[in-house]
Design a protein that fits this description.
single chain, 382 residues, alpha/beta, Nucleotidyltransferase, domain 5, 6-stranded mixed β-sheet, 12 strands, globular, binds adenosine monophosphate
């Protein structure tokens, strides 16, 4: 069977990003975005118009497209694998909107627009939460009143699942080992950041939770906080929307130092900026706290892998993340770590019992491949 190219769509509240991907070679034939949708002076008044722009821009490449993969942020308890889009599936994604109010409604608008304009293609929804759907009960459960948690669907869902699955899947091949025998830790460090512990290909823990706010310190999110801070701020007169904005946009590295890009943060630290120095140390403190937790949870760790914008590019963060962990069997090769390189690579010392790697993530390719597989073998939504 010849597999055509796949259109991958990542629809946000005011933008639609797309790629046309060859799922076999992995090559992105075309990539682009329509941004500032609905804004005055923006290129498109709404998502349908934005999608029309994309179809016009990509007309040549799209002639060969039979499958469209849609990134959907939240699959909740409803979706634990990529799913062929039907009206019922769209209704399900819409029902989950309270869990991801910024993302799921935008995903639905993108799906509707693409289905209307590409009616003959098979559309597949690929969920950012799916990989973590079957986390062990101890990792999934918050110690809240169980009745309240059940009534509101409160559990650890985990995010960046497509990336954690893709990257951990490549590691076995790179180490020439079977995925089933590997214990892994994956650090997805981008503007958003999350860590996962994976045993034999199955995730056993992850740092993001009910929302993408939990866990590591991120570009603009705080990661773990005392939950008491939220009602305290509400009582102090902040609205819920204001608190949401504080936690999603004004915290993390940005909140502490005024910048969220690591290149700028390093420059500030080197110029003796105390707030930037504190932000960097808080970031690493939290990261090593999780790393230690996952080392203990897994008992033996075969591979620690860095990915995403910071993980792939920032040798300094990688070195500091695993600094002085010799006694745990983790030893970096400083020259390999510092080498300017792009592809997947080993950065640990040859005698390090735990392999340390950099593996570039490629969520679009992972979505394209899952979409093709699902279109060929559709499974009923459960
Ligand atoms: P992502 O969310 O995966 O696209 O990652 C974006 C983040 O990666 C940016 O905010 C930067 O902090 C970081 N980043 C990107 N390129 C570099 C680089 N060359 N060196 C250090 N950090 C980088």
């Amino acid at each position: 069977m010849t597999v055509g190219q796949v259109l991958v769509i990542n629809s946000g509240s005011s933008s639609i990003k797309y790629q046309v991907v060859d799922p076999v070679s992995g090559e992105a034939v075309l990539a682009g975005a329509v941004e500032r949708i609905g804004e005055t002076g923006g290129p498109a008044p709404d998502h349908r118009a934005g999608m029309r722009e994309i179809l016009a821009e990509a007309a040549d490449a799209l002639r060969d497209v039979g499958v469209v993969g849609h990134r959907v942020v939240h699959g909740g308890e409803l979706f634990h694998r990529p799913t062929v889009v039907t009206d019922d599936v769209v209704a399900g994604i819409e029902r989950l909107a309270p869990l991801a109010p910024l993302h799921n409604p935008a995903n639905v608008i993108g799906i509707d627009a693409a289905r209307a304009l590409l009616p003959d293609a098979v559309h597949v929804a690929v969920f950012d939460t799916a990989f973590f759907h079957d986390l062990p009960d101890v990792a999934r459960t918050y110690a809240l009143d169980a009745k309240v948690a059940a009534a509101h669907g409160i559990r650890r869902y985990g995010f960046h699942g497509t990336s954690h699955q893709y990257v951990s899947g490549l590691v076995a091949g790179l180490l020439d080992r079977r995925a089933a025998e590997l214990n892994q830790i994956v650090l997805h460090l981008g503007n958003g950041a999350s860590m996962s512990a994976i045993r034999g290909g199955k995730p056993v823990d992850t740092s993001m939770g009910f929302t993408p706010l939990e866990g590591l310190v991120m570009g603009t999110r705080p990661g773990d906080l005392d939950p008491g801070i939220v009602p305290y701020l509400l009582r102090a007169g902040m609205s819920a929307d204001r608190v949401d904005m504080l936690l999603n946009r004004q915290s993390g590295l940005m909140g502490l130092s005024g910048v969220n890009d690591f290149r700028e943060l390093h420059r500030l630290v080197e110029s003796g900026h105390p707030a930037a120095d504190l932000a960097y140390r808080v970031y690493l403190h939290r990261l090593r706290h999780y790393l230690g937790g996952y080392l203990v949870e897994l008992g033996r760790v075969d591979a620690i892998t860095f990915t995403a914008g910071v993980g792939e590019n920032d040798a300094r963060v990688r070195a500091d993340a695993v600094h002085d962990l010799d006694r745990f069997g983790i030893r970096l090769d400083d020259a390999r770590n510092a080498a300017k390189a792009r592809g997947p690579r080993l950065i640990s010392a040859p005698d390090s019992p735990t392999a340390v790697l950099v593996v570039p993530t490629n969520e679009e390719l992972a979505i394209a491949r899952q979409a093709v597989e699902t279109a060929a073998n559709p499974q009923p939504p459960e």
